[in-house]
Amino acid sequence: MDSYSILSQPYTVEEEIKKSRFITVLFFCSSEKELKLALTRLKGDYPDARHYCYAFVAGQPDETVNCGSSDDGEPAGSAGRPMLAVLQGSGIGEIGVVVIRYFGGTKLGVGGLVRAYSGGIKRSLPQLELETKQLRDSATLVCDYAQLGDVEYLLKRFDAIIIDKSFTAQVKLVVEIPLSSKNAIADELATLTQGRLAFQFVD
């Protein structure tokens, strides 16, 4: 996978099911810490709710390690896990969701809860504003001052990002290169410098 979609804007949808309010909030989330910060903020925005169930995928869309969920007092398996399953099947990475429930007095049963907690996410997915995140590899490159202009032009052409630049007897660059361009830019660098320069990729 060279790239994947991420949220560019948070999205909120609300519905009432048998007098219970379900408020679904989706947002960019690259770590469990970000999820917990969002959860704290939403508890302040929506006080006195009965449940704040959540799920997150803090990496690529098919992430199975850096992810998690919580039923927050609902019957086990009725909220967090179904929510996580929808996120993992969405094709969107680095995404979190909190579903806030204000209890309306009528129990929905496990099946009804699964539909309620996952349904808001499913309906939201087509409405989300997305952008593409390019996956990148880190690399270093040492060149002469006379070569720097050509090297920087090459990096720009391939959407590589210069993270650090240090000047001694030569110039050392630390760069991040899109995975989709990795082989092509390495080949062009070799051609440009007649094989004298090569990227050293960080394992």
Q: What does this protein structure show overall?
A:
The chain has 203 residues and is an alpha+beta fold. It has two domains: 130 residues, Ribosomal Protein S5, domain 2, CATH 3.30.230; 67 residues, Alpha-Beta Plaits (2-Layer Sandwich), CATH 3.30.70. The chain is 30% helix and 34% strand. It has five helices and eleven strands; from the N terminus they run βββαββαβαββαββαβ. Strand 9 and strand 10 form a beta hairpin. Helix 2 packs parallel to helix 3 and helix 4 runs antiparallel to helix 5.
* Number of extended strands: 11
Beta-strand proportion: 25-35%
The CATH superfamily of the largest domain appears as Impact, N-terminal domain
Predict the CATH topology of the largest domain. Answer: Ribosomal Protein S5, domain 2
Biggest sheet strand order reads 2-3-6-4-5
Measured on Cα atoms, how large is the radius of gyration?
Answer: 23 Å
CATH architecture of the largest domain: 2-Layer Sandwich
Distance between the termini: 17 Å
Overall mean confidence score, pLDDT:
94
Q: Determine the structural class based on helices, strands and strand pairing.
A: alpha+beta
